[in-house]
Design a protein that fits this description.
heterodimer, A: alpha/beta, 12 strands, 62% helix, elongated, disordered N terminus, B: alpha/beta, ABC transporter transmembrane region fold, Rossmann fold, 3 domains, 6-stranded mixed sheet, 21 helices, disordered C terminus
Chain lengths: 668, 578
């Protein structure tokens, strides 16, 4: 960010939103903030380490995670045992059915031998694997017990799955809570330069959008990931226990599934990226056209805008159709693989049963295992995308958490004595926002206790920078600023700031009542004190006209009161804080004239008996300042009282003339 | 609205939809054929030990599986095409609709809301259609087909379907309906967290200046705890669903085996058929569950559809004339005759009975406090609004009879918010005059006092401008917007509070340059700052929508108290006299 920009940021008037100066950002970013809604598919840079770090955030939840793992294992074991037990039930039914068709009184052995004698080798083989009691039919007592067992097992499995989800949910939400709080803490420890060097929307998007994305990813992937992985392992084990041959048949599908997922996912990822890109572009167009609706009309660009929109819209259609189509195939493809396994098991299993190598219940169990197996696999596949975007967001948050913090306050801070007044001195101060562009060089300036120092100069001269240094929003590069003789760098920031009141041009008020806003600097202020400050700042006057008086809620952008009234509230806020030093950044336009008079008057009252720095935009308001400092390009070019400076016919005189005398002075 | 919107926008794609239904039916049928073939393998193959039969039936199953994937892919293809076409058409129509709006409609909706409607809301509806085409079409077919197949297999066991399906639906709906309000709450809480964070970022200087960090941290902790609380509650419900579904499915299969076993025992059911029945039941339950989840999307899409419908059904309050006047004789006169304007439903008119004339070569300025109706006045002159009463004449012709393009070609507007478009300096300057030469651009920049900083930018005229012009400062943006209007070389200039971000010296230089360069044009200036307008030929003082005084600076100083008051608030008396 250039110094030119920075200073214009502060000295240019009007809506602060308009004054936000950003480095040229790539266009699609603009659409990303609020309206685009969908974040473009960003890729994490360091996937592995970032995932580890994200998981590491769960460390305070070590116990719940252990419990979750145990519960998940129990749940999975039960759900994996289920099909085998059901298979046992199937065997009882099937074998009971076969037995009922055999002549009563014979033994199974006799039946099989009979079959062999008839040359019916195949059936004989099959029956030899069975547990037959000829003529007895289905053993319902045994079946009942087995099914009851399965029922209990299944219900327990559901219970454990639920418990596991419940515990994990708590752990994840607490982790999200901690992450949010860490980010908020970090905001308080970052130097202002961090926020000033990034576009405002950028930081905001990190702490809001990215944060949501991370918590959602944790929520949606972690729980599924645990059960899916365990299920795959459990099912594999069970399949091998029941029938290694069929297990191998089923496992052939793993590489198949992986290949199918990878091939499709790779294509769809590219297409999704294209879809996001085109969505971003189109949304940026829409945003632009709607925001500048009047300009588009008056400059007669509707036709061009429409043509351009159609073109971008068609591109988006193509891209999103491709993405949706390819991603839409994933599920059917998984189903196809699943069906292939199903067919393979049905056939191979059928043949095995018919030759007596396997019992029917095992085939039945296998068909269920195959489904239990392919489902988590495809879930893992679909989670990959979610995980990727979540990790990318996590990375952006980690970046913020890793950003360099402000220098810490001195261990043994000095405190200036609570003297009657404050003497502020800039001693040989140099400062620049970027090393290659020196801004303030070797500046000296003294403000005596109770005096008013007005700072004037063209945009970009460095006026706001003085405020930044004085408040220690930024630290000086060399030289020092003293407060009653003590270097402010030796004080704690809180101490310094609590002695300093500030009324910025960008009168930031927070969402809350007028009363709360006035009491902002001193939440413990009594009703009386608040009222006093309100009267002094002329807030009391207009507050009575509002339906809810001091309880009137100010909206998000405080649009329900005028700019001038906002300024008055900011002044009342400073009044209540009773600072020793005062910094006023004057408002210029966009304040309606009647209120403007009051603002000026209130500011004057506020200045009384305080060491004040006034950044002036209108020279008329600071004529009675004790010292007027004229700044140009970061240096003080003139310093003195109004009359002296006019006398000198220097920079101040030129500024003054430009402001008050119309074309006449051109000759001068 | 959702239904009407879908009918209207899907009608052109009926053939695609028909194809989706046909192919989804085919694939569902294929899906349903597998269990009964499997039953055949058990009953006819295994039971008789006929390996050949098993293999040949297996081959059939393989073939059907292949057919099924082909049908599904085709269905997905057509479905995606239909859904994306709907999205494209909807976006186009919303965009065109807004393009035809007057400023009044744009203001009523608000630009951000219109943007969300044409992006996110369209996306919602589009996603719903996509889901319908890929899943919702096949789910009922699969469910109904499953029921029919299962009933054909064994009517006596069918009561199991009649029990398990409603149980599943009721359980899932019970949880989901409890979750929905919680999710709305989650959204609200997220908004609050974001609000606090946004405040901490935008107000960071004030927060630090007032040493409020600890209190802000406490405030954040409150909203943070609130969001954690509600997401925890929503999460608890969410984790109920998978175990519930699993429980219903598993209990059902146990039940099928138990009751089926009796049928097998009494010989009314073959064992293979029992398994086919079991698999059908599973398919039905899965399909039902899918549909239930899909249906949850409908309310959301329906809200979006309503919001889109509002835009599509809103007519512009400013319509071009049927037989427009396409040529004007005179050049650059604007006359307002008894013009009043009020918003529909408002008790107070914004402007009341305004009459004045702007002449070529003169400057008319309007001053007045915020909310006096200045920008409304500008909008009326540009026919971005229509007057409720009275007439606005441009060169003697009522703007309502004029071809809007002709009207706008005559006027160069510098709006209050000097919006710049993504592109380059040059592309922005050429916005109203694509054929302007580089020389013309530089001249306009010179007049607008923007030459120096543009020349200093890397690339000069081809320097990049970010969307909205956020990479240049407010003052620079204002000057570029002025240059953009000058490049157009219109006969009438309208400056809506266009000098506010300039420092006084630049402001003065700019006005002198304008006198020199576009002195022959009609100029209309809305201003807050008195210094910007002292030299105007005619100053109108607007107060609560009424012109309370008019005249030159000197005249007004002596005969208008309000004007004198405005001036006094900005300059000290002697300075004005000087």
């Amino acid at each position: 960010m250039t110094t030119e920009n920075r200073n214009q940021t502060a000295s240019a008037p009007a809506q602060h939103e308009d004054e936000e100066v950003r480095p040229a950002a790539p266009a699609p970013r603009g659409g990303m903030g609020g309206f685009g809604g969908q974040l473009p598919a960003k890729k994490p840079i360091n996937f592995g380490p970032s995932v580890r770090r994200l998981i590491g955030r769960l460390r305070p939840e070590a116990w719940p995670v252990v419990i979750v793992t145990i519960l998940a294992i129990i749940g999975v074991v039960f759900s994996v045992l289920g099909p085998m037990i059901l298979g046992e039930g199937t065997n009882i039914i099937f074998e009971g059915f076969i037995s009922s068709q055999l002549a009563e009184g014979t033994t199974a052995q006799q039946v099989i031998e009979g079959l062999r004698l008839q040359g019916n080798e195949g059936q004989a083989d099959m029956l030899s694997a069975m547990n037959l009691h000829p003529g007895q039919g289905i053993d319902f007592t045994q079946l009942g017990w087995i099914l009851l067992g399965a029922l209990v097992l299944y219900l327990l499995s559901s219970l454990f799955t639920w418990l596991q989800g419940y515990v994990l949910n708590g752990a994840i939400q607490r982790t999200a809570y901690r992450l949010r709080s860490d980010v908020e803490d970090k905001i308080n420890r970052l130097p202002l330069s961090y926020f000033d060097s990034l576009p405002r929307g950028e930081v905001l998007s990190r702490v809001t959008n990215d944060m949501d994305n991370v918590t959602q990813t944790l929520q949606q992937t972690l729980s599924q990931m645990i059960t899916s992985l365990l299920t795959v392992v459990g099912v594999t084990v069970m399949m091998f226990i029941i029938s290694p041959i069929l297990a191998l048949v089923a496992l052939v599908t793993i590489p198949l599934t992986v290949v199918v997922t990878v091939v499709i996912a790779r294509r769809s990822q590219k297409m999704f990226a294209a879809q996001w890109k085109h969505t971003g572009e189109l949304n940026a167009r829409i945003e632009e056209t709607f925001t500048a609706h009047a300009i588009v009309k008056v400059f007669d660009r509707q036709d061009e805008v429409n043509a351009d929109f159609d073109e971008k819209n068609a591109e988006l259609f193509k891209a999103s159709f491709g993405a949706q189509f390819v991603s839409g195939i994933i599920m059917p493809a998984m189903m196809f693989v699943g069906n292939l396994v199903y067919v393979a098991i049905a056939v191979v299993g059928g043949v095995m049963v018919s030759v007596g190598a396997l019992r029917l219940g095992a085939v039945q169990a296998f068909i269920q295992y195959a489904r239990q197996f392919s489902q988590p696999l495809s879930q893992l596949g679909s989670m990959a995308n979610l995980l990727q975007s979540g990790v990318a967001s996590a990375e952006r948050i980690f970046e913020l958490l890793d950003a360099e913090e402000m220098t810490s306050d001195p261990l043994v801070p000095e405190t200036p004595k609570a003297a009657a007044g404050a003497r502020v001195a800039f001693e040989d101060v140099s400062f620049s926002y970027s090393p290659d562009k020196p801004l303030i060089t070797h500046m000296n300036l003294v403000a005596e206790p109770g005096s008013t120092v007005a700072i004037v100069g063209p945009t970009g001269a460095g006026k706001t920078t003085l405020v930044n240094l004085l408040m220690r929003f930024y630290e000086v590069d060399s030289g020092r600023i003293t407060y009653n003789g003590i270097d402010i760098a030796r004080m704690t920031r809180d101490d310094l700031r609590s002695r300093t009141g500030i009324v910025l041009q960008d009168t930031w008020l927070f969402v809350g009542t007028i009363r709360d806003n006035i009491a902002y600097g001193r939440p413990d202020a009594t009703e009386e004190e608040i009222h006093e400050a309100a009267v002094a700042a002329y807030v009391d006057r207009f507050v009575h006209a509002l339906p809810d008086g001091y309880d009137t809620m100010l909206d998000d952008d405080a649009s329900n009161i005028s700019a001038g009234e906002r300024q008055l509230i900011a002044i009342a806020r400073a009044f209540l804080a009773k600072p020793q030093i005062l910094i006023l950044d004057e408002a210029t336009s966009s304040v309606d004239t009647r209120t403007e008079v009051l603002v000026q008057e209130a500011m004057k009252r506020l200045r009384a008996d305080r060491t004040s720095f006034v950044i002036a935009h209108r020279l008329s308001t600071i004529r009675d300042a004790d010292t007027i400092v004229v700044m140009e390009n970061g240096a003080i070019v003139e310093q003195g009282a109004h009359a002296e400076l006019i006398e000198a016919q220097g920079a101040y005189w030129r500024l003054y003339n430009a402001q008050f005398q119309e074309p006449a002075e051109q000759a001068a | 609205m959702l239904f009407r919107l879908l009918v209207r926008y899907l009608r052109p794609y009926w053939a695609l939809l028909l194809a989706v239904v046909v192919f989804q039916s085919l694939q569902s049928w294929a899906m349903l054929a597998l269990p009964s073939l499997n039953a055949d393998i058990i009953d006819l193959g295994i039971a008789t030990g006929d390996t050949g039969y098993i293999l040949s039936t297996g081959a059939w199953m393989l073939l059907i599986t292949l057919a099924q994937i082909v049908c599904t892919v085709v269905a997905v293809y057509f479905g995606a095409r239909a859904a994306m076409s709907l999205g494209r058409d909807l976006r186009r129509d919303v965009f065109r609709g807004v393009g035809a709006f007057s400023e009044r409609e744009v203001n009523t909706f608000g630009a951000p809301s219109l943007i969300t409607r044409s992006t996110n809301d369209v996306q919602q509806v589009q996603t719903l259609v996509q889901m319908i085409c890929t899943m919702l079409v096949s789910a009922p077919i699969l469910a109904i087909g499953g029921v029919i197949a299962a009933m054909r297999l064994n009517l006596e066991l069918s009561w199991l379907i009649a029990v398990s399906v409603p149980v599943l639906v009721v359980l899932v709906l019970l949880v989901v309906t409890r979750m929905l309000p919680l999710y709305r709450l989650v959204q609200q809480r997220i908004d609050r967290v974001n609000l606090v964070l946004r405040e901490q970022l935008t107000g960071i200087r004030v927060i630090r200046a007032f040493v409020r960090e600890p209190i802000e941290t406490k405030r954040f902790d409150v909203v943070n705890t609130e969001i954690t609380d509600v997401t925890t509650r929503a999460g608890r419900l969410m984790v109920l669903i998978p175990p519930l579904v699993m429980a219903v499915l598993n209990v059902s299969s146990v039940a099928v085996l138990w009751f089926g076993a009796f049928r097998v025992a009494d010989g009314s059911l073959e064992i293979g058929t029992l398994f086919a029945f079991l698999q059908y039941l599973m398919q039905i339950l899965m399909a039902v569950m899918m549909s239930t989840f899909m249906l949850v999307m409908v309310p959301r899409a329906s809200v979006s559809a309503d919001r889109i419908g509002e835009v599509l059904e809103t007519e512009s309050s400013v319509t071009p004339p049927d037989t427009p006047v396409t040529a004007l004789r005179a050049h650059g006169t604007i006359e307002l005759q008894n013009v009043s304007f009020s918003y529909p439903g408002a008790d107070q008119p914004v402007l009341r009975n305004l009459s004045f004339t702007l002449q070529p070569g003169t400057t008319t300025a309007v001053v007045g406090s915020t909310g006096a109706g200045k920008t409304t006045l500008v909008n009326l002159m540009l026919r971005l609004f229509d007057a409720t009463e009275g007439r606005v004449l441009v060169d003697g012709v009522d703007v309502r009879d004029l071809d809007p393009k002709l009207l706008w070609s005559r006027i160069g507007l510098v709006p209050q918010k000097p919006y710049l478009f993504a592109g380059t300096i040059a592309s922005n300057l050429r916005y109203g005059n694509p054929d302007a030469t580089d020389d013309e651009l530089w001249r306009a920049l010179e007049t607008a006092q923007a030459r120096d900083f543009v020349a200093a930018m890397p690339g000069g005229l081809s320097a990049k401008i970010a969307q909205g012009g956020t990479n240049v400062s407010g003052g620079q943006r204002q000057r570029l917007a002025i240059a953009r209007a000058i490049v157009k070389r219109p006969e009438i200039y309208v400056f809506d509070d266009s000098f506010s971000a300039l420092d006084v010296a630049t402001d003065a230089r700019l006005r002198r340059a304008l006198d020199r360069d576009v002195g022959g044009a009609t100029r209309f200036v809305v201003a807050q700052r008195v210094t910007s307008i002292v030299s105007a030929d005619q100053i109108l003082v607007l107060e609560h929508g009424v012109i309370v005084a008019r005249g030159t600076h000197e005249e007004l100083l002596s005969n208008s108290e309000i004007y004198a008051e405005i001036v006094a608030s900005q300059l000290k008396a002697e300075e004005v006299a000087a």
